[in-house]
């Protein structure tokens, strides 16, 4: 994994792009991308879909996580 990150970092620099690393422990699949509610039950990897108890939005675990990772990366980029 570290070799992949090393190559990705090199290529990003080569092409003048930013590489933003999200914290490994960022709760990307547990956060509702719609309202920000954190659902601790989603830690169980067997749960593939879940409904937010705050706003009612139904999430696919992986799609929701990818949206949260994108949002977090954009926040980090804006802050730097």
From TrEMBL:
It holds the Pfam family Cas12f1-like_TNB. Keywords: DNA-binding. InterPro entries: Cas12f1-like_TNB. Residues 1-69 form the Cas12f1-like TNB domain. It comes from the Bacteria. One of its GO terms (molecular function) is DNA binding. This is Transposase DNA-binding domain-containing protein. The lineage of its organism: Bacteria, Bacillati, Bacillota, Clostridia, Halanaerobiales.
């Amino acid at each position: 994994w570290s070799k992949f990150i090393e190559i990705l970092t090199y290529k990003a620099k080569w092409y003048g792009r930013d590489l933003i690393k999200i914290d490994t422990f960022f709760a990307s699949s547990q956060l509702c991308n719609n309202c920000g509610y954190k659902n601790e039950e989603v830690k169980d990897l067997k749960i593939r879909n879940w409904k937010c108890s705050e706003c009612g939005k139904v999430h696919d675990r992986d799609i929701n996580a990818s949206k949260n990772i994108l949002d977090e990366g954009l926040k980090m980029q804006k802050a730097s």
